[in-house]
Each structure stands twice: as structure tokens, then as C-alpha cells.
Amino acid sequence: MSYLTAGFNVSGELAPNPPYPGSDQNFSMRAGDDKRITVTIIDGATGGRKDISGSSARWSMARGSVSVLKTTATGGIVITNGPQGVLDIVLVPSDTAAMAPGVYRHELEVVDASGQSATVMAGDVHLRRALLP
Predict the structure, then answer these.
(1) In the chain, what is the straight-line distance between the N-terminal and C-terminal CA atoms, in Å?
(2) Cβ neighbours around 46 below 10 Å, total
(3) What number of other Cβ atoms are within 10 A of residue 77's Cβ?
């Protein structure tokens, strides 16, 4: 798979496409909240959106032995517009409710229909303590 990167939108916060793969794409959220992360996959060679039809993806958020894993196979990641390179990572309250506040790393890998993989997004998640039970 050619050099790929991703722009993303988390609850209205738009992050620019990074200048190179692996650039930090950070966001914050409260533990126990619903969160939808919309990601657009960009082909670094052309600057256009990458068709991800038929692709699979997996995303993880982790710190030490504590982690959350979302995949297209389990429905935690949904390709919402394959030809335009758009997918959603869907977090539900139970994914983060028991996690301690702090900084976690996250990473998204996409495997295209031919089996080539690329890490298209990585960064920090600042998990904040929920004030309300």
C-alpha cells in the first residue's frame, strides 16, 4: 500500500492531515462517553482520498496492559464511504468507563483488499475523568 495518512474529526474538532505518516493526531474525551471518530484516509502520493472499499481496519487505544480494540470484523469500525476513504471508529461507554484518567496512545491500521497494511493514524488520547456518575 502506498504512503497513506488520515485526517479525522472527533466531536467537531477537525484535525488537519499530518505532514507524514505516524504524525501525532491527538484528541481528548471523558471516560464512559460515547465517541465517534470519523477518519478520512488520504493517499500521500496523490493527495486524494484513498478508496478503502473491501479493506479492513483495526484501532487500538492503550496504556500499559489496559487497552481498547476496535475492528471492522467486530463492528467497532464501520467503513461509511469506501470510495471516498471514510470510516468511523465507534466507542461506547463501556469501552472507557473503567479506564483510569490519563494519556493513552492510539493507532489505526488499514489493510486493503490486496492484503497490504499501513498505519494511517497515531497519537495520544487524553482520557479525562467523568464528573457525573
Answers:
(1) 44
(2) 10
(3) 22
